[in-house]
Amino acid sequence: MTIVRSKICGITRVEDALAAVHAGADAIGLVFYPKSPRAVSLVQAQAIVRALPPFVTTVGLFVNKPRAELNALLAQIPLDVLQFHGDETPEDCSGHGRPWFKAVRVQAETDLLAQMQVYQEAQAILLDTFVAGQPGGTGQIFDWSLIPKHLPKPIILAGGLTADNVRQAIAEVQPYAVDVSGGVEHSKGIKDPEKMRAFIAQVRQTM
C-alpha cells in the first residue's frame, strides 16, 4: 500500500495551521513571496511554526529570493524544507543546510526528465500549472498525461487540486504527495477547515 502525503500550502494564520494538522496534513507551506496574496511576514511565520506539534513538516516557499536574504530568514525560522518556485539554478537551491525541492511549471514542451537531471540534488520535484507571469497559486490544473511514468525522483503534484479531483489525480499520476492551497480556502490566504478535512479524507481513501 502506497501512502500519499499531503501538504496544505499558503497558510497565513495559526488557527489554519492547527486546523490543517487536525485534518491530517503531513506538511504545511508558508509563502515568503511578497507579491502573493498568501505571503506571510517573519512574525506571522514564527508564530505559526511555534504553534505546530511534532512531526509536521514546515515548508518555506521562495521565488528568486537573494541568498543573503534567504539565509537571514532561515536564521530566524526553523523551516524543515525549502521550496523554490522561481528561476533558481541548482546552485541557488543548494547550500542552505535544508533539504529542498524545485517547482516546475508544466506545459506541453516541458521535458521533466531533463529538469530532474538539472535539479538532481532536489529531494523531490513539484509539478504545477504553467501560467505566464505567475510562479504558482493559479488554481488551475494542467494536463496530467504530460507527466511521464516512472520518473527517477518523487513527484509532488500541485495545480488546481480539490477534494473533487484529487482521487483522480492520484490514480493517474501516482505522486509521492499532493499539494493544495486555493482548493481548500474561504478566500485567498484564509483556509476552510471543512475543505481541508474533505481534501485529506479523499487522499486517504486512495491508500
TrEMBL record:
Domain N-(5'phosphoribosyl) anthranilate isomerase (PRAI) span(s) in chain numbering: 7-201
Record HAMAP family: PRAI
Protein name in the entry: N-(5'-phosphoribosyl)anthranilate isomerase
Pathway annotation: Amino-acid biosynthesis; L-tryptophan biosynthesis; L-tryptophan from chorismate: step 3/5
Catalytic activity: N-(5-phospho-beta-D-ribosyl)anthranilate = 1-(2-carboxyphenylamino)-1-deoxy-D-ribulose 5-phosphate
Record keywords: Amino-acid biosynthesis, Aromatic amino acid biosynthesis, Isomerase, Tryptophan biosynthesis
CDD domains: PRAI
InterPro entries noted in UniProt: Aldolase_TIM, PRAI_dom, RibuloseP-bd_barrel, TrpF_fam
PANTHER family per UniProt: N-(5'-PHOSPHORIBOSYL)ANTHRANILATE ISOMERASE (PTHR42894:SF1)
GO molecular function: phosphoribosylanthranilate isomerase activity
Single GO BP term: L-tryptophan biosynthetic process
Homology family: Belongs to the TrpF family.
Lineage, highest ranks first: Bacteria, Pseudomonadati, Pseudomonadota, Gammaproteobacteria, Pseudomonadales
Pfam families: PRAI
Signal sequence annotation: none
The protein's Enzyme Commission number: 5.3.1.24
